[in-house]
Fold this protein.
Amino acid sequence: MIRKVKLIVIIIVLVLAGIGVYAIYKQFHGSEPIVKTVETDHNLPVVFDSIRAIGQWSLATVDVEQEVDTLDNGVLGTGLGRDKVRMVFHGTLHYGIDMTKTDADWISGGGDTAYVSLPSVVLLDDKFLDERRTRVVEGSQDFANKPEVKAGMARKVKALMIDKGNGSIPSTQKKAEEELRKILLRHGYKFVVFRK
């Protein structure tokens, strides 16, 4: 029995000694030095050029329905032959960034950080009225079809629609920055700084 106890104590001492020797060896010889490197994609100029070549980068679409009316006071403003029309217009406004307006140095890198000067979000096309869906809800279709009436109402409704659509610009600018940030992070950058 005493022999068994001595044998168990010797085995435990040998195991502990082995663990100690292994720990000391690993501390001095077993671990590789940790070297932190930043790897960025060497094809970035091509990536930047391809992003810039997009031209107009559409990021948000705003569908707007707007009602407007106009009144013609008749012959020489006397009220004779007075016409009134109320119409509903539909439009689809596309907001985004015109990438052709970026400078040659719109994006640059320094170590693990990319610096970006992104143009502001704008209305990409001012021809957004859908004339097929325009309808007269009150008044004469003949009066509405007069060129001067049609042009005046189109100017008025476009201004109202643009005013409504411009509310989406701040969120669209954030969306553009997030999309570009994702692209740059995939290409090895750790930080993306947007300059104004």
Observations:
- Confidence is low (pLDDT under 50) at residues 31-42, 75-79.
